[in-house]
Fold these 4 entries.
Entry 1:
Amino acid sequence: MFKSTQNYIASNDLTLAVNAAIALEKPLLIKGEPGTGKTQLAEELARSLNCKLYQWHIKSTTKAQQGLYEYDAVSRLRDSQLGDARVHDIGNYIVKGKLWQAFEEEQRPILLIDEIDKADIEFPNDLLQELDKMEFYVYETQQVIKAKQRPIIIITSNNEKELPDAFLRRCFFHYIKFPTKAEMEKIIDVHHPDVKQTLLTQALDVFFDLREVNGIKKKPSTSELIDWLKLLISDDISQQALLDKQSDIIPLFGALLKNEQDVSLIEKLAFMSRRNR
Amino acid sequence: MRELLDLIALLKKGVVFADVEEFYNLAKIVMVKDEIYYDKYDNAFAEYFQGIEHIDIFDKLLPEDWLRKEFEKHLSQEEKDQLKALGGLEELMKTLKERLEEQKKRHAGGNKWVGTGGTSPFGAYGYNPEGIRVGQDKNRNNSAVKVWDKREFKNFDQDRELGTRNIKLTSKSYVNLPAQVPVKSLISIRLSAQPRKMAAYLMCTWSQSVTTR
C-alpha cells in the first residue's frame, strides 16, 4: 500500500490511483503540470515498496523496439571478421532493453516510462501487446520473453501529444493537480524545514498571485518555488525586501519567471501599480 | 467495457469501501482517460449521484430495539447515567415529538426548543450529551461541499472558451477535437445497471440515526 513518505507528499486521490494500479496490475498514466512530482512519484514508490526501479527516459528519437532489445549487428560483423568464437551464438549480440530487464526481475520491479509523449505518435501503439500481456517475441533467437512478475508500470506524460485510444484503454489515468496553498506548505516543509513562517506565507502569497496573472506564458511551478525559497533564505537582503514589500518588483524573480515576455509583463504591472499609488 | 470490468474488479478487491468520494476518485481513475473530460465527469457524477447520501435504506429494515442497543453501546458510562436522568431513550423520543409539535419556527441557541447550536437535548450542530440529532442528515465532520461540485476542472473542458493554454494544445494536436458529448450520453456509455446497485449499496454508509454530539 502506497502513501506519502517523508520526502514526498501525495494527495489522497494519487495514493488511490497508485494502489488501484498495483491491485489490478495495470499501468498508471500520470499527467500534470511540469514540476508537480511525476517522475519523483516513481522513485518514492520504489523506496516505499522497497523494490527495484527501472527508468526509461523517452526522447523524441526513441523507438518502442529499444525498450525491448537491440540487436547489435555491427559488432557481430566485426567479430566474425576477427574470427571471434562468440559469433556463433546470436544471443551474445542481443542488448536487453529496459522492459526486458524489468520482466526478468524475480521480485516485482517498478518500471518508469518517462515523458512518453515526447516520442513519435505511434510509439505507444507499438507497446500495446507488451503492456497488455507483459510478453514479447525475440525474432533473432526465436524466444518468447514473458514477465516473471508483472512490473508496476508508471507512465508520465506532459500532454504535448494526444495519446492513442487503444493505449489509454489499457491504463489507469490520473492527473496531478497543482497543490493548494496548504499542500504547498507541507511540500516546502519537506524541502526547507527551517524556513521562517512570515517569509513562507509572504512568499506563498506572491507565488500564487503570480500564477493568477493573466497573460503569463509559463506559470511558475513547484520546483521553481522551492528554488526561489532557497535563494531567498540564503540572501538576507532580498528576504527583507520581500517581507517589507518595499518595491513592487519581486526580488530574485529570475528563479520564478523564465520567459522574457513574462518578465517584461510583470515589470509593466509593477510600474502601473506604482503609478496608481 | 474493459473499464467497467476493471472498476468492478477493484471494488471486489476492496480498494475502496463505502465512501462516496473514494468511489468518485476510483471511477475517475479507471474511466476517465484525459483531464479534458474531468469536468464532464464531474457533471455526470453530480447529476447521477445527486441526493444519494440521503437514501435511508436501513430505515424500515432494522428493528428499533436493535437500533437502540447499538446506540447505547456507543455511549460511555456517564452518558448512560445522564440518559437515565432524562428518563431513558424512550422518554426522550416522546418528549422530542411533543416539543416538535409545540415549536412553531426555527430556533438557534437556547436550551429548550429544538434548534441549532444550543444545548437543548434536541436539534443539530449543538452540544448535549443525550441529545437527538434532528434535521441534520450527515455527520458534521464531513465536508459539506462535495469534490465534484467544486468543478475544479472547468478550465480543462474542451468545450470551454479557448484560452491561451487551450489554444496551444489544439494547435499541437494531430487529431480533430471530438464533438461535444452531452452529459446524459456520457452516463449511458460509462455506467450501467450493475454498478448502480453496487453503488447504492456502497453509498449508504451506516450513519447513526441518532447521535450524542
Entry 2:
Amino acid sequence: MEQVTNALTTALAAVFLSAMVIEVRRRQKQLQELYNVLDEQDKQIVTELDRMVETGEIEPYAE
Amino acid sequence: MSDTSATPARARKSRPSPATSAQGAETGRHPRFRLFILDTGWTSPAAQVIRDNFEMIRSFKNGDPLYVLSPEQSREIIRKHPHFIGKDPILIVRDMHRSGPRDGGEYHGFHLNLGLIQKPVRALAALQEFLRFLSVHRQSANIEKDIRDRLHKDGFIGTIEVIREGAKDAMGA
C-alpha cells in the first residue's frame, strides 16, 4: 500500500512539475511576443519607418 | 475601428519641429534612439492607455525624436505586414548608436506590442516598465543584450516571476 502511495505521489509531483515547466515556457513566450528585440518582421517595418523619416513623410513630434 | 483623431494625442498635430529634428546638433550629440508609435485605431484598452498617457511618453523620451504615425500611416504599414494585426499600438525603439544597414549592419532596437494586452492596468504597467527600461538602460552599450538577459531569465528566478505574474492574473490585477 505504501509503495502505491509513493508511486502515486511521485507521479503527481512529476505531472505538477511538468505543468509548471510548460506554463513557465508559455508565459516566457508570451512575454517575448510582447516585449523583445527587433526580429526579422520588425526589421521590415523599421526599414519602412526609416525611409519615411528620411523622406520627411513622418517628422518628430513637436515639443 | 475607431476614429482616434479626436484623442488628445492625435489632436495635436505631429508637426515638423526644427527644434526637435535638429536636437542632435543643438545638444552636441546624436539621439540615442528613434521612437515610433504605430496605432491603427482599434478600440482597445491598450490603445486607450497609450492615448491617455501620451504626455507621459513624451516626458520620458529624454530628447530622443518621437514619431507618431497617423492611423492611416499605421494601417498602411500593417496592411503590408499583416502579422502585426491586433498587436498595435506598437512602440518601436530603434537604437541609432548601433550600426545600421547603411554601414553593412542591421537594425537594432526593441518593440512593445502593447495591443496584445487586454487589461488596462496591465497595459499601463507594461508601458511604464518599457519607459523605465528605456530610461535606465539608455547609456547601455548593448541594450539588446540587456533585454535578452531580462527576458531569458531561466531557472528559479524566472519561475518565481512567472508564478508571481500568474498570481496577479488570478487576482485580476
Entry 3:
Amino acid sequence: MKRHLAEAGDAALPPGPRAMRGGWQHLESKLVHWLLFGCALLSIATTLGIVVSLLSQALGFFREVSIWEFLTGTRWAPILVPQSFGVLPLVAGTLLVTVIAAAVAMPVGIATAIFLSEYAPDRVRRIIKPSLEILAGIPTVVYGYFALTLISPLLQKVFPDMLIFNALSAGLVMGLMIIPMVSSISEDAMLAVPRSLREGAYALGATRLEVALRVTVPAALSGIIAAFILALSRAIGETMLVTIAAGATPKMTFNPLESIQTMTAFIVQLSLGETPHGSLEYNTIFAVGLLLFLMTLVMNLLGHWVVRRWQERY
Amino acid sequence: MQQATTLFHRRLRLRKGVGDVFHILFLLAVFVGIAGLLTLLVQVLVQGLPWLNWHFLTSYPSRHPEQAGLLSALVGTVWLMVLTAAFTVPVGVGAAIYLEEYAPKNWLTRLIEVNISNLAGVPSIVYGLLGLTIFVGWMALGRSLLAGALTLGLLVLPIVIMASREAIRAVPWTYREAAYALGADKWQVTKGVVLPAAIPGVLTGTILAMSRAIGEAAPVLAISALVYLTFVPTSPLDRFTVLPIQIFNWVTRPQDEFRGLAAAGIIVLLVILLSMNAIAIYLRNRYQIRSEG
C-alpha cells in the first residue's frame, strides 16, 4: 500500500517541474534504472554461467561415457588403468559423511533450538547465540585441521585399526559445523509460534516439556524440516573438511571407519593434479560437479518449498 | 476420589521428572556446540602459538618448517579481499536497490528473488568450476588474482544483496515520502535519502560477506591451484595464494612441524575474521543507538 503511494510519486508530478529539471537529470534517472536492473540480472547470469560451464564440459565427458554407466557404475577410477567411471562410490562416500553429520547435528541442533526458545532466559540466550554464530563463521579448513589432528587420533584410541583418514571423524566434525545452521533456522521457526498457543497449553496444566514437544515443535515443524534439508545440502556440498580428513579412496562402503572419497574431495584432488585441460579425465570433474549441483539444487528448492507450502499461519 | 487424586499426583510427579531430565538433556546439547568450539580453539592455540612469531608473519613458505612463513598468503588474502569487495559491493548494492525500490511485481522479479536464494545454497566448489571455465579459460585471465576475485565476488553476491535489502527495507517510508513531497524523483530519493540511511547496514553485511570470502578455500583452490609462491602479487593479473590454501597445504603434510605451522596460520586467519566481525558488530550497535536517539 505504502509502496504503491511512493511509486505514484514520479508519475504524479506535474509536467512543469519535470521539464525544468532538464534532460540530463531525466536521462540519469533512466540510465540508473537500467544499470540497477543489470545488477539484479547478474544473479540470473551467474546461474546460467554455472549451468553452461558445467554442461559444456560435462557433455564432452558424456560423449565418451554413457550417462547410464556414470550413474550406475560401482567403480570410480578415472586416472587408473583400467579406467572406470561409475560415480556411485563418490555418492556413497558423500552420503556416508552426510548421514553421520546429520546424526550429530539434528538431535543436538533441535535440542539447542528448544532450549534457546523455550527454556533459556534472555540473558543466557544473548551469550549462547553469538557463540554458536562463531561456530558457523569458522572457515572449513579449520574444521578439517581439527578433525585430522585431534578427533581422528582420539577415535583411533577407541578403534585401533582405523586409518587416520576416515569418514567417521569427518562426519562428526561436520555435524559440529552444521549445528548452528540447524539450531538457528529451527529456533526462528519456534520463535514465530505465537505465545498464546503456549499459554493455552500451560493453562491446561501442561509441563514445560509437554508445551515444547506437543505445541511448539509441531507448530514449527515446517521450519525444522527446512532446517534439516538446508543443513544436509550444506553438508553434501562441503569440500575442504572432507578433502583433508575423509581420505581419497573412492569406495562403495557404509563402514564409517574406512577411508572414503566424497564428490567434492574428488573435484579438488583432480583439479590440483597434472591432468591436462580438455581431456576425458579432466572433464570428469564437471560431470561430478553437475551431479553435485543438481543434488543440492533439488534439496534447496525442496527446503524453500517446505517453508512456503507447510508454514502454519497465525 | 481419594485414589484419583493420588494417581494424578503420582503422574504429575512423573511428568515433572521427565521434564527435568529433558531440561538437562537440552542443556547438554547446548554444551556440545560450545564445548566443540572451545576444544577447537584450545587445540589451535596450543599447537599454533609456539610457531607464531614475527618471522612467521614476514617470511615466504619454505621446505624447512622453522624458516617457513605466510607472507605471500597474507598479502594475497588482502589483495583478494579488496578486489572482491570492489566488484561485489557496487553490484550487490545495485541489485538490492533495484529489488527494493524499482522492481515491479512480476514473474521476472520473482525469478530473480528465488534465484538469489538458491545461489546462496550452491556449494562453493561449484563456483570454483564456474570460475575455472569462464574467468580462467574463456576470459583468459589465467590463474590470477582477478579471476579469483570475480569468482569469490559471485559467491558472496547473494549475501551482500540480502543484507543490503534488509538495510534498505529498514529505512522508514516517511523519509522517502518527505523527499518525494519536495519534488525529488526516484533516483534522487534513493541516492540522497535511502542510501545514506542504509549505509551502516550495508557496511555490516559487506564485512560479514568479506569474512566469508577470505575463509573460503575450495573455489580459490580450483582457481589458483597449490602454488609455491616466494613473491607477493603486485598486480591483479599475478598468480596468488591465500591463507586458507596455505593452511590446507600445511595440514596435508605428514610432518608434525607443518601441523604446527597450520595451527599458527589458523590463529592469524581467526584473528582477522574476529576483528572483522567485531567491526561489523560495532557498526551495528552504533547505528542502533543513533536511530533510537
Entry 4:
Amino acid sequence: MSMHEIPWREGLLAERRGDAMAYEAFLRDFAASMRRIVAMRLRRLRLTADEAEDVVQEVLIAVHARRAEWDAGRPLVPWLNAIARYKTIDAVRRLRRQARGRVDLSEEEWSAIFVAEESGREHHAMDVESLIVVLPPGQQAAVRAVAIEGASHREAADRLGTTEGALRVTLHRSLKRLMAAVRQGDGQ
Amino acid sequence: MTRHAAGGRSPGTDELVRRLAREAGHAASRGPPRNLVFAGFVAAALGASVLVVLAMIGARADLPAIAGSWILLFKVTGMLLLAVGGLRLVRAAMTPGTEPHPISALAPAAVFLALSAVLDRSGVPPAGARPLLSALLCLGGITLAALPALGLTLLAMRRGIPTRLGRAGLYAGLLAGAIGALAYTLACVNDGAAFVALWYPLAVLTVAGIGAALGPRALAW
C-alpha cells in the first residue's frame, strides 16, 4: 500500500464533509507528488516547467471533477494513479501536436520578420539588436546567432551548447515575447 | 525556463488549488444511484437488440414450442454467461484502479460452449443447416442487433471513468455482442451446439473489434 493512501483518503473524505482546509491540504500534497512524477517520467520529452505544470493542473482538475465517483470502499491511490496516467498521456499528446505546429510555423515567421527587409545587413542587425534588448540573455544569444549571424538551427544549437529542439523552443519563446513587445509599443 | 524550478510551487497551481478547495462538499452526486443507472442502460441495450432482431428477422416460427426446451436454453445460457463476463469486464474498465480479468471473466462461457460443442449430438454441421447462408445470417444478424446495444453500453461507460479507452471499447463490444447474440437466439433456427459455439463467439468478437476501434474516440473525456 502506498504511504499516501491513509492521509489522502482522509483528505478526500474530509472534502465530502465540506472541510475545505483538509481538502486543500490534500490537493497541495497530491499536486507536489504529481509534479515530481511528471518531472521524472517526462524528462525525455523535454517539457518546459510551464508545460509540466499544465499537466499537473489538468490532473488536479480531473480528480476534482470526478471526486464524487471514488468509492470509499476501494483503495484511493490506484484510483488516482489511473486518472493521473490517463490525463498525463492526454496532455502529452496535445503538447506534442502543439510542438509540431510550433516548429512548422516558426521558420516562416522568422524569415518573414528578419529576412524580408532588403535593407543593408548592418542596419538590419542594428534593428534586431535594438529589438532584442527586451529578451533575457539566453534568448538574446539564440536570436543573435540565428537572425543576425545567419547560423542554421543546428550550428546555433551546437555553439550555444544546447539541442536543436531546445533552441527551436527558445526561438519560439523569444518570437512570442518580441511580438508582444511590438504590440505593446504600437499601443502606446 | 526555470521560473519555478523543480519542487517549487507554481502561482497558477496555488490559485487553482485554492479555487478547487472552495468547492469542498459540493460534488455533484445528485440523481439516481450509479448502479441503477448502469443497470438501466444494460436493460435498454437488451431491449434495443431484441427490437432489432424482431424487426429485421422476426422470431422463429416454433418459438413458443421450444421456449422451455434445451435447444433454446442452451443458446440462452451460453450467451448469458458471456454477457455476465462482459458485464464484469465493463464494470472494471470504467472504474479506475480496478484491473479487469478477461480470462476468468470469459472462462465460464468458453468452457460451457466448448463442452456443448464436444458433446453435440444434434447432427447439425458446424457450418449450419445451410452452410455459408446460415453462418452469414448469424454473423450479420448478431452484429446488427448488437450495434444499438454497443452505443448504449458506450454511453453507460462514459458515465464512469474509463482510463484505457481501446480496451474499454473492446469490453463494451464484448458485452454488446453478447447482448446482441442473446437477442438473436429468438430468431436463430440453427440448433447445433457446434454451430452456436463457433459462429456466435465470432460474431461477438466482431462487435468487440468495432468497440475497440470506437473506444478511443467515443470514451474520451
